[in-house]
Amino acid sequence: MKSIQFTRLTKTICLTAILSLYFVTGTQAAGKIDRVPSEPAVNGMATAEYLDQQIQLHEWLMSELPDGTMDVPIRAPLTKKDRHAIKNDNTLQPRPRRVGIVKQVGRTIKIWRDRPVSKAPARRSEGVIRGTDDGGFVWAVALESEGASAFRVHLSNVSLADSADVYFFNLDGQAHGPYRGSDEFWTNTLIGSQGIVLVRQFGPPPTRIRSMSLSVTSVGNMGEQFVTGAQATLCEYNHPCIENAEGYEGQPVSDLQAATAYIEWVQGRWVYSCSGGLIADSDSQSQIPYFLTAHHCLKSNSTARNLELFWNYTTSNGSCEGPIGPMTSGATVKATGSRGDFTLLQLNEPPPAQSVFMGWNSTDISTATDMGLHRVHHPAGAPQSYTTHVVNPDFVACGSLPIGQFIYSVDTLGSTEGGSSGSLVTNDAGEVVGQLYGGCGTNFDECLSYDWRTVDGALSHYFDQVSGFLAASCDPLPEICTDGMDNDCDADVDCNDADCSGDSACESACEPKNAACDDASDCCSGICKRNGRCR
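The structure corresponding to this sequence follows.
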């Protein structure tokens, strides 16, 4: 007898879509919200604007780059052993897709000491420094990760003047920054194996600053997934049943394309990837950037804070070598749980213009036989793919995945793979009813599903844990700066709300963490660090 296999890789068949025989009709009773519609994003940057800013930033950084920076790079190669470790992940299922490995560098660099800087480029602590016309300086160091298809850098112990900014870019047109306000962070990812960390001090350094330094702690090297070419379905590293989402139009697939992001993050020794999507809340007076993915993908703020989200990653806005469109960074975990395998995030930045926050329906559909389901996702890190399913509860539940807590379905078009985990699944009306856990069954074949089922965490099961965010109602009133409440429904509370910037209750006699300081008495912590910032 065949043993039950567990995996997050969803196995499917390439058949024509089956018409849905069931349609959910949600209700909204007094004091109870169980469904909301989709809504377009009202903030964020348009793709064309994002790309234009990239061009302008890159041109400026190249004009600032000191001569000779690329001559002696810091090297952190991706070895054959590393590539093998990335591909051969033997940790227990379910798990996010492993796409990279963290390589330790451990270089602490003294960028500048209290002395004039010549306008002639000079080698300085691994990099090159030169003075600028405004009395400041620019310092840069090259990094090279031979064998990597993409990489990002972990900087720590960043001790700079408030008038200094950090940037990360390459010679091929990608540029990120400025990075400010933190003494430890991961940069964004660059496609390719070369990059440059550049520090620009604008104007003369403050007299209280005696030195500036930072540590290049490690690099996150991505493997070979981005370097293979495209084929008729999607990418050559995908299974043949994978369907390119750009080949489909209409609803709900069009809204799902505008809601879905490919996500990557660093956790411990590895770089991981999954999928996920924007989800609407019930308050029409505000738009909080909530994002739904899987618990087995990420579950803690320590990883969510270095999260990267790649938007509009399609074959026309990127390639099998990676995305080129808008990206945002960072998030906080609002709710998460293994029962239903969900994580609800609040993003640090708004998604791009023309994104869509998907509506949702908290009705239990786990026993709604033949109900049509839809998803857009990033299989194996590829551009957007489209898959359809029909609910099929007539299947022995797999292990700890009971029906009701999870939704079982048969795939009717397309397939999902590692990297698809966390992708939103909707009904025919485009209402989110859950997100991808993976699959289970007795036959391990990517394109046959007669004894294999896709498994999604059911929104109806964990709804009570997210309803305080998604179904909270708000009647906007003037912000009160001392009551601990978001009175004006803009997601900012008390002194964190811009409306309270002039309120006496928000004036402090001491400076908060990371604010500029001259001595300990300036800081609320009572400690002014050597870099002139409050602890």
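Residues 47-90+100-225 form one domain.
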